[in-house]
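Query form — protein Arginine--tRNA ligase

QUESTION: What is the three-dimensional structure of this chain?
INPUT:
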Amino acid sequence: MTSTLEQLKAKCEQALIAAFGETMAGTDPMLVPASNPKFGDYQSNAALSLAKPLGQPPRAIAQMLINHLDVADICYTPTVAGPGFINFTLKPAYLEAKLNRNLTHPHLGVEPAKQPQRVVVDFSSPNIAKEMHVGHLRSTIIGDCIARILEFRDHDVLRLNHVGDWGTQFGMLITYLREVCPEALTTAEAVDLGDLVSFYRQAKKRFDTDEVFQEAARQEVVKLQAGAEDTKRAWQLLCEQSRREFQVIYDLLDVHITERGESFYNPLLPDVVKDLEQSGLLVEDQGAKCVFLEGFTNKKGEPLPLIVQKSDGGYNYATTDLAALRYRIDQNGAKRIIYVTDAGQANHFAQVFQVAQRAGWLPEIVEIVHVPFGLVLGEDGKKLKTRSGETVRLRDLLDQAIARARADLETRIQAEGRQETEEFIEHVAQVVGMAAVKYADLSQNRTSNYVFSFDKMLSLKGNTAPYLLYAYARIQSIGRKGGIDFEQLRTSTQVSLKEDQEATLAKHLLQVNEVIKEVEQELLPNRLCQYLYELSEKFSQFYDQCPVLKAEESVRLSRLILCDLTAQTLKLGLSLLGISVLERM
Ligand code: ARG
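ANSWER: The structure tokens for Arginine--tRNA ligase are given below.
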């Protein structure tokens, strides 16, 4: 089931060839959804861009194209507009046929990718013994959404958690652990180290103020590298505890991810250095092994080095990423690798990608992308902090979202004089709270900073999760009120479009295919959010103008189908954002 846009594009290409000859094969007809209903549903500016190469006025080209266009099955005769745009307006019969087909299609007409790929999505990736902060929250939410969309399109997605579980900081942590909890290194039982973040802080304090401690920490790193039993045990202990804490967050967010931390690549690091040496890229600079980068210079304009092995023999974050990149391509067969981190790491990835490229480790068919995102700000416009100025604990943040959602719900229940069970309240609060946090993040263009505001994200008005969830629940309530079995209705009813609001809603419903494909390419979840928001708005306009349950029988059934398709599309779209719907709220 190709999308309308694809269908029209194919027909435009045929018309171009018919009008101007074979050389036009493969020419992009530059067809996009029209920005304003005045211009029909789709608009092409091909004639404008062909004016120069063809040496003819754009309006004449547009007319020639139209003369050769055979689109009667899809739209009314296209029209030339302004300097030479071509406007396409879809026919109701075409819309009806498509809707009727999508209705019983398991994926609402969204077809799987023609060439499914192995894709790695590297996201979340917090650091052991450190706080998982709001930056990791963004990575988790955005990465999960991207993975969901790729999976939905049938790609073979490997969700990888590139946890920071290796490095010199473990020397310090293990040395401190030996000091404060020596029994932890010998017992086989699980040991609770308490708050790991304050543990980290105390260890750091010891490290910064005591030279003997520093030396012990360095020894500990050497032992860890050499695989000494007790050191390894301590390392595992730290990792396990962090892992448990991270898991609480993943469970709350309903995010599934496979841990493959930095330590996994540790045995592969010497080869990275060796192979770089063999490819002639490696330069020794003051004892450190590095690759001098192209296009990255210091203040004096000298090329910057990417250090892959420090003078003390240790490796860097970048070395691990080089090893990971190779592993994902060679061992996992990845054809697309997506890294979801804050924009602050853009240079890091550009540098790693450049070195891999120059070393010949990147086959042309492999696409590697850094998906950057902006900061989370407090309502004061500064980096999000607690009132006392500390970094916000994710756990607290999510708990608070649920508590706020609950308070809102309880107020509403009381105002409406409803009786609800504790189970219902808890479930709704949990779903709405998590949905609000996720949606607030995803609905922003990820590259910009966004202000974290509970009031805004939990509002029932505007482009928020509660608004969309409410739109879904409202349709379900129409169904309940009318005693409708939507599932059964789908198999027995056909849509027919009479009113403008019905056609407007129908056209929007049919765009879901294009939107999902666009997000799959551009990796911008806010486009899907915007689509769903507009869908809810168009549904509201339809529902305001077109009575459903009170309409006469055949109109009633057709309109119920439009309701159902809207609900199904909302449910699908929200599920791709990692948000579940509520039948009632
Ligand atoms: N652990 C890193 C951090 O907290 C993020 C890792 C991202 N992934 C990667 N392959 N470098 O900043």
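ADDITIONAL NOTE: The radius of gyration is 28 Å.
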